[in-house]
Protein: GFA family protein
Organism: Paraburkholderia panacisoli
Amino acid sequence: MSNSWKGRCLCGAVQYQADGASLAQLICHCRDCQRASGSAGLPVVVVSASAFSFKGETRTYTKTGGSGMPTTRNFCAHCGSLLFGTPAHASEIVTIYAGTLDEPWRFSAEFIQFSSGRHRLDGHEPGVTQHAGRAP
């Protein structure tokens, strides 16, 4: 297994790569991440901005986040897949949205942030029936 983080959007028009180990791996349950991803929380791999590159056409959306500083989310201009973030308060990092990784099984959360915003959309409740494949 390589030490590169590679991924792409749903349609394949945008590909990215970050060389080297991750700086952190986390799940964010802030309301902005929930709304941007359409899910209960966003799994994120934090990498060095100097080791990150992408090719393809992206569009951006910038919003002031919980830090009080602007955060830019980058998504595919064609299929709309949310791919990575570039926070203004930490220009030395890029936040890769782990669902777009070519090898998503490499993701291993080290911590969860904004857990107070976690809610039932999370789906990891012990009493909920789970199916390994498509539900019957």
